[in-house]
Amino acid sequence: MAFDPCREWLGLAAVDLTDPCRVLGLAAGRHRAEAIEEAAAKRLATLGEIVPGAFAKAHAALVGRVAAARDELLADALPSAPSPYVAGPTASAAVFATHEASAALPCGGEPLHMEAALHADRPATPSAHPPRPPCGRPHRPAEGSGGLVLASMGLLSAAIAVLAFLVFRPQSPIERDTALTQSPLQGVVEDQAQEEMSPEPRSAQSPRRTRPQPHSDEQDGDQRSTIAMPAAPPSASAAEMPDQRLQAERARLAKAFDEAIRETYAALKDHRFAVADRAITRADQHAGDDLEAARRLERWRLLATYARQFVDFREQAFAAANAGREFEAGGVRFSIIEITPDLFIYKSEGEIRRVPRVGVDPMIEMAVVGTWFERDGRAANHLFLGAGWLCRERPNLRRTQAEWRTAGDGGENVGPLLALLDDPAVRPSAR
What we know:
The chain is mainly alpha-helical.
């Protein structure tokens, strides 16, 4: 049976790739953004641990499909769960008063509607008060409830007293002037004020109003002008504060995202792929809702995949290099004598040279790997060679571009990879 990358790596049939939920291993329907992100991360992590070998093209296509399925589901994700409603002490007091009032209703009467309104927006909870007695049976409060009733009546009396004081308390001259200034019936109220200042009897005057204290016309004019002055509009800087905070937060996320990308590239050049994976995860957390940042991150995920696989293929090429076999690099021919885990021993221009594996000339290294890839002859091999030229201490963008364009001429999708050549993290260290 032919090897099926989709079934072997993701456990899916090829026809299931049209369903984004199946691609991410989710049940059919809408999901929250957190579940979608977590499922996509697991899929990408699974694909990142695979060495596709001859199926590199299918591997890259599956990586792209997982990212596309994630974006498709996020566009229709469920909203975040609302915070639970917590009733305050005022509502509790109202419920208690309603219960006491409903207990006094005659048999067959309807309970007050206040309690129903208070409970309409929250789940029913067990009542802390005794249920209403059935018709014809008088209600006897439980032992110890009399003190609670008296306390509630005392609180209600205090509230009524405060309300009465606020409504019927004497008004000061400043308060009366304020009312005269702001009332739409100013003329009528001024006439009543003049009657209060006159020596005639005030039989029709309400006893709840007191005579104002005498004060000069100059003070009265100052008070009226001060009270009637409209409030100054809010400053422009206060209105701009929310936008400034939003811009500052976006700038902070963009800076953290860029730092994570640069750390990713530094780790790839040192072949520290676990560090690169952690940096990519951190960049994903700071991408936010920026679509361009998400696209940039997917390009770096793809490069990390090809760079990791290039290192594996390079070791296979070194192991397959025969002693005495000749290669050519930059117009200079050389022959392999021995390649050990630590040394690269070769002969060039009649001289035997021994160099550490990590210090071998990149032209010599890539000549050996490129010759090994030529046996296969597939265009996808140039994707790995391009990643090998880009992920080294001194990247060679010209060679990288040439390898990836060769892969593109062979039918590979190299658009995201070529866009990396203009990435801000690549340009400063390239030559």
